[in-house]
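Module 6 notes. Inverse folding takes a fixed backbone as the condition and produces residue identities as the prediction. Think of it as a translation problem where the source language is geometry and the target language is the twenty amino acids. Below is one complete input and output pair. Work through it position by position during the lab.
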């Protein structure tokens, strides 16, 4: 049984994805009366995950999470267990694991305990670096291989196909000058995939816009 929690304050949490270099991390400011379920949804947004896989928190040697059919069970209801129940201290750490088949392990460290601003908006992402890996790419080792391939294999051949087709079209003004449509489409999709995979991207404003949908009212936490 958990004791009656103290008055709410604010936790500043640094969340680091393990096994990936350069480091992928986020800094979140959350109310201490946020539940385990709340924190799960915050982390899904902060790292751009889709919540399609199983997860669990490991706090003080015990597992917590939202149960799913075919997944692990938990002794406590994640929608009622609040962070404040754990009496977390500065520099204390706990773990969040997502996607058990190719696990993404997040270390969560308490950086600061801050006073609650009644008019503040929580949760909030205040810092971070780099995009999270594609969640189904196979785990940290597979992602490092993907990074290596991305940096060392620019699709020059696809770019040349698209550039040549565009040049021919501009010179002739006739659609048939574009050449083989299937080859052109394949080259375009390859270039598009390369452009969309941007491991350096970190869109804090977009993360905060999504976090606001969890608790749209200022200074409140369900």
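Target side of the pair, the amino acids:
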């Amino acid at each position: 049984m958990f004791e009656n929690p103290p008055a709410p304050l604010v936790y500043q949490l640094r969340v680091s994805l393990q096994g990936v270099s350069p480091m992928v991390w986020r800094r979140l400011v959350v109310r201490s009366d946020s539940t385990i379920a709340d924190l799960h949804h915050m982390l899904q947004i902060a790292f751009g995950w889709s919540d399609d896989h199983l997860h669990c928190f490991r706090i003080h040697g015990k597992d917590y999470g939202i149960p799913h059919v075919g997944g692990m069970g938990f002794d406590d209801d994640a929608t009622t267990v609040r962070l404040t129940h754990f009496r977390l201290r500065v520099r204390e750490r706990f773990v969040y694991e997502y996607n058990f088949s190719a696990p993404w392990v997040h270390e969560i460290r308490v950086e600061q305990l801050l006073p609650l601003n009644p008019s503040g908006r929580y949760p909030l992402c205040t810092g971070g670096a780099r995009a999270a890996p594609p969640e189904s790419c196979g785990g940290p080792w597979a992602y490092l291989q993907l990074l290596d391939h991305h940096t060392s294999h620019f699709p020059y051949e696809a770019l040349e196909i698209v550039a040549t087709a565009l040049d021919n079209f501009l010179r002739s003004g006739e659609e048939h000058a574009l050449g083989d449509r299937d080859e052109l489409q394949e080259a375009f999709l390859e270039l598009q995939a390369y452009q969309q995979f941007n491991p350096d991207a970190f869109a804090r404003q977009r993360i905060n816009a999504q976090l606001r949908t969890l608790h749209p009212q200022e200074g409140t936490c369900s």
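Reference fact for the lab report: Strands lie at 10-17, 25-31, 55-59, 62-64, 93-98, 104-114, 124-129.
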